[in-house]
Amino acid sequence: MKPRLPVLSALVGPALCAALSGCPKYDPEVQSGSSGGNGSSTALVSTPLSAMPLVPSAPPSAAPAPAPAPAPTSSGPLASVVHPVLLDPSKAADHAPDVFKARFTTTKGDFVIEVHRDWAPNGADRFYNLVKLGFYDDTRFFRNVEKFMVQFGISGDPAVSSKWQTADIQDDPVKESNKLGFVTFAQTNMPNSRGTQVFINTADNPRLDGMRFAPFGQIVKGMTVVESLYNGYGESPNQGAIQSHGNAYLDAQFPLLDGTKHAEILK
Questions:
Q1: In the list 99, 121, 226, 245, which could disulfide-bond 249, CB 3.0-4.6 Å?
Q2: What is the rounded CA–CA span in Å between residue 144 and residue 134?
Q3: Is 130 a member of any domain?
Q4: Is the confidence at residue 14, as pLDDT, over 70?
Q5: Regarding beta strands 215-221 and 109-116, do their DSSP bridges make them parallel or antiparallel, or are they unpaired?
Q6: CA dihedral 229, 199, 64, 44 (to 10 degrees)
Q7: Tens digits of residue pLDDT in 191-237
Q8: Where are the beta strands (DSSP E) in 33-171?
Q9: From CA 122, how far away is CA 113, in angstroms rounded?
Q10: Is 41 part of a structural domain of the chain?
């Protein structure tokens, strides 16, 4: 699965970067996983430049609050064991209702996303199926930039991630703006590259609207829960490492990350 982040990468070209006010420098050492994000050495698969994502650069922010003491965690069974259907992306083929709600039970409490299919039909259908199939269960909020967005949607099971690497969906026209609390699929810099990763806007981000980021829903309950998710690691977790090593990598290198225990479609 290709890494997908909503911060404008230098890979899209210096002219566009300058126009959109700043881009992080691509560091092949970091991207190849020589650092796990906390200074420790890890043996990770490098991410090819062609797979790097189109991501709007995160605005400057204050230093994160001091980290709380880590809560005890337990390692659950792999997603491919609990939900073996996840090994076959072709099963994600149901048509979503015109409007539906999905509840996410997290380590900080519950939040509810209301999805409107007419905003982004392909995105709504994909999200509906992912929730129904259990894809988001036992996953982590691995990218959290204060006053920008919080991102999730890489399986904690590498076997599942490998099956979804090319299971992308067609783009939707952008009909709604990326406002505070609106929910959108992440994507690479290539068209039709939305897969399983989703982000929640934690600020108004209208600059994303012209970059194919099409919201499909919004938080209607529990935005305070979303805003309380741990953000002390920022963008440090390596997406390639998550795809290759799953929750084992995140739990070892970034133990304070919050996660989704279970997601379900509300009747």
A1: 245
A2: 22
A3: yes
A4: no
A5: antiparallel
A6: 100
A7: 999 999 999 999 999 999 999 999 999 999 999 999 999 999 999 99
A8: 99-106, 109-116, 139-140, 143-145, 149-152
A9: 16
A10: no
